[in-house]
Amino acid sequence: MRAFDILGDPVRRRILELLATGEHSSGDVVAVVQREFGITQSAVSQQLRILRDAGFASVRADGTRRIYAVEAGRLREVDDWLDRFRALWLPRLDALATEVARGKRKRRHQD
Amino acid sequence: MRAFDILGDPVRRRILELLATGEHSSGDVVAVVQREFGITQSAVSQQLRILRDAGFASVRADGTRRIYAVEAGRLREVDDWLDRFRALWLPRLDALATEVARGKRKRRHQD
DNA sequence: TACTAATATTAGCTGAAGGTAATATTAATG
DNA sequence: CATTAATATTACCTTCAGCTAATATTAGTA
């Protein structure tokens, strides 16, 4: 669950929240984060890189712009990790029902 | 989502995984974590305190022992935060269906 | 009541995460 | 092709989270 190491930073989480609403250019992300956290373009760019390297985001070039999008994989890891706790607030649902309900395809350990 | 700040540490995550399987004494937790991470009793005790203070765990005394249990609330926050991404891997489920399926009672912002 | 067992707390140290400032890179544009 | 716009990278600095070592606390026990 290295995924949580990445999510343990408010700037990175905010970036992901933003990307959850759709693709955004680096500039867009910088603008929002800069307004809310008051950090430099450099710092935001570094966080974007971390998200890329960790597989939480992907980039595509559009001229001189970089368009970022969120990637599902690592976030599903987090979702899966939570499974072990869900019995705490879904006590009546059995495991299979929960999986079906959540539309989860049965995945092997780390796919 | 301060919850993620707490989860952004492997020792704390491991402790929660352990507590997910049921109550454990401080000593039990120390034994496991010590074996796996090679840190001192002091360090583990400090992490247990952080989990307590943050509302991820609760304690009850049993003689000289402290029995820890996981608390659902903060973990649900994480689960809720993930909602915005679930469309990425559950594209066909509409919002209501997802909620019903996951058995989630409609909660107000931060209850 | 002295001793031990279980756990928590405190003080101090250290590495690494995340920041800034400056600079490099790359593509569009006149 | 020189310039500008958008973004990334690098080097360096600083803060603080998490560690250890030592000690305090509290309950059971001989």
TrEMBL record, chains A, B:
PROSITE patterns registered for this protein in UniProt: HTH_ARSR_2
Gene3D superfamilies registered for this protein in UniProt: Winged helix-like DNA-binding domain superfamily/Winged helix DNA-binding domain
Molecular function (Gene Ontology), one example: DNA binding
Pfam family, one: HTH_5
Annotated signal sequence range: none
Keywords, ordered alphabetically: DNA-binding, Transcription, Transcription regulation
NCBIfam families from the UniProt entry: HTH_metalloreg
Protein name (record): Winged helix-turn-helix transcriptional regulator
Species of origin: Bradyrhizobium uaiense
Lineage, highest ranks first: Bacteria, Pseudomonadati, Pseudomonadota, Alphaproteobacteria, Hyphomicrobiales
